[in-house]
């Protein structure tokens, strides 16, 4: 079924009794949603620039469409921390939050079709450096992305539950907008723990997740066939082959991984049946590469008519590519160009390492620091040898493929990498393990 246009969500026929959201044990209907949006639009009339931050997915959806109906520019902060909001305070005149519904009156605005090409939504990237920047999107771009996703696979037909926030583009697209367009309910709660999500999981559901959560399924018993989701999505960073396999065993289906960014939206997907599979471009997405492997993309849902250059390096294949890391993670150490992604990959190939992240310490001369999650074998070696000698053991393993400049000088051995809500381990998070500000 073709997704319903978001621009005419309230002007084309949809049954008032259709389920729209699951919230605190209640099923909210489309009729109630439309009424709440009309009252929100009335209350927000005249608001030209708003920051929208709601933990409750239903309140967020009401605020989003209420602000769009009011003609507002909408800023979507990546989190609700006071420092974050303060740093953005010159960009908005009003903060719309979880108390939105409590202050609504019976004054309702007439709901109209929404403009498609006005860049009303302002997102923030969550890149590896920890320096986010603002990216503007229009509702028409979001609609075109949903049409592309509809060709990828059948849209959700059951409820949509999530472990990721809707404040980022991935969460907004797959846990709020796609269910709205497909006519299936979404859960208002963002589940921090698998135990609460699985307890609330209805049959035939979609789970919108990320590597931050799919790498933490250990200890959960495999779900019975009747209780499995029909699909699991992951985005934010490539999922390890081990995590993909474990997800398939426990949740009952292989995750569909989404490749993209705040600037591009979704552009490619894959499922890892053996591990390391290539990414397949979504319908209508074109790609080309520069001499250094940097990827450029063009698609109907990407802003502008030309090519958008990215900092992703890929090895092109027919209809897709193998991801080879970020070009902006090539640094100079001791006068030599060092690829941090390559060092991380080399560490992960060592038998004592489950996963690793490498960053450059902000000092002169530059030194590399590595955060390492030991494998089961590595944990035993760490316990027997101690941190210093285990680090020396890893350095000897790296010496088989890396020059001296590419050797980490400082090590931290941790139970899990510091991964944010979108599944990315930023350089700033790694440096924080070494007491370095970012």
Protein model, in words:
The protein is of the alpha/beta class. It has two domains: 6-325, 3-Layer(aba) Sandwich (Rossmann fold), CATH 3.40.50; 334-432, 2-Layer Sandwich (GMP Synthetase, Chain A, domain 3), CATH 3.30.300. It is 27% helix and 26% strand. It contains twelve helices and 23 strands. It has a 13-stranded mixed beta sheet with strand order 2-1-9-8-10-11-12-13-14-18-17-16-15. The chain has a five-stranded mixed beta sheet with strand order 5-3-4-6-7. The protein has a three-stranded mixed beta sheet with strand order 21-22-23. A hairpin with a 2-residue loop joins strand 1 (19-23) and strand 2. Helix 1 (30-43) crosses helix 2 (57-69) and helix 10 (376-385) packs across helix 11. The longest helix is centred in the first third of the chain and has 14 residues, at 30-43. It is globular. The N and C termini lie far apart (46 Å). The model has no long low-confidence stretch (mean pLDDT 91).
Task: Spell out the key features of this protein.
globular; 12 helices; 438 residues; 2 domains; GMP Synthetase, Chain A, domain 3; 13-stranded mixed β-sheet; 23 strands; Rossmann fold; 27% helix; 5-stranded mixed β-sheet; alpha/beta
Overall mean pLDDT: 91
Radius of gyration: 23 Å
Biggest sheet features: 13 strands, mixed
User: What is the percentage of strand-forming residues?
Assistant: 25-35%
What would you give as the CATH superfamily of the largest domain?
Answer: ANL, N-terminal domain
Low-confidence stretches: none
Number of helices: 12
Name of the CATH class of the largest domain: Alpha Beta
Per the CATH scheme, the topology name of the largest domain is Rossmann fold
Shape: globular
